[in-house]
Specification:
With 206 residues, this protein is mostly helical. Helix content is 65%, strand content 0%. Helix 2 runs antiparallel to helix 3 and helix 5 runs antiparallel to helix 6. The longest helix is centred in the middle third of the chain and has 17 residues.
């Protein structure tokens, strides 16, 4: 199964057979979709999970199907192999009504990832969420993770996001951002420090 191609589907392969059975209604979409998610959540390498990722793509989950399983997709973000985490992120981003707690959890997971692509996607989502959410304090931990990212681009964009929304944090949220300042290089932290009322960057990273 590891070596089956998602497209074009070769007759007689497991992917082709399952696609036919699903289209005929012999095997339910729900069973296949839930089976893929359960397998993803059990873990494994990208190679181990490739077949299930291809099957998931072939199923083409509808909006309502993704929404009903949003928590499972969020749970994949911290540690699933990159291609599976990207799959989960792609479907979560289709949803416009995720609870704020799920958004904060998803952002924290993405911004903890070592892959620049996922961290950048997380920061883009954070920036958009900051425009939409009423309570930005929930985003402060995710901003701190972005400050610690190994990508200069992500750090710079996180700093700009923090500055742009600095007046929308409560005193507690602003303090959380200030505490994360040492994670930024001093050359990037200056604008954030000024926006959040920090007088000295003596403890900021060099």
């Amino acid at each position: 199964m590891r070596h089956e191609k998602a497209a074009p589907l070769a007759a007689g392969t497991w992917l082709a057979t399952l696609r036919v059975l699903e289209s005929e209604g012999t095997v339910s979409r729900e069973m296949l979709l839930d089976g893929c998610l359960r397998r993803f959540l059990r873990g494994g390498t990208a190679t181990d999970l490739r077949f299930f990722a291809r099957l998931h793509d072939l199923i083409e989950p509808a909006y309502d199907e993704v929404a009903a399983r949003a928590r499972d997709y969020v749970r994949l973000l911290p540690s699933a192999p990159g291609p599976v985490a990207e799959l989960a992120l792609r479907h979560l981003r289709r949803l416009g009504d995720l609870p704020e707690t799920d958004v904060a959890e998803a952002l924290g997971a993405l911004l903890s990832r070592p892959e620049r692509k996922l961290a950048t996607a997380g920061l883009r989502w954070l920036d958009e969420a900051a425009d939409e959410l009423d309570d930005l304090d929930a985003l402060a931990p995710a901003l701190g993770l972005a400050f610690a990212c190994g990508s200069w681009d992500v750090q710079c964009r996180a700093a700009r996001t923090a500055v742009r929304h600095s007046d929308r944090f409560s005193p507690m949220g602003a303090e959380a951002v200030r505490e994360a300042l040492p994670l930024l290089p001093a050359s990037v932290a200056g604008s954030v420090a000024a926006a959040f009322g920090v007088q000295t960057l003596a403890t900021a990273g060099g």
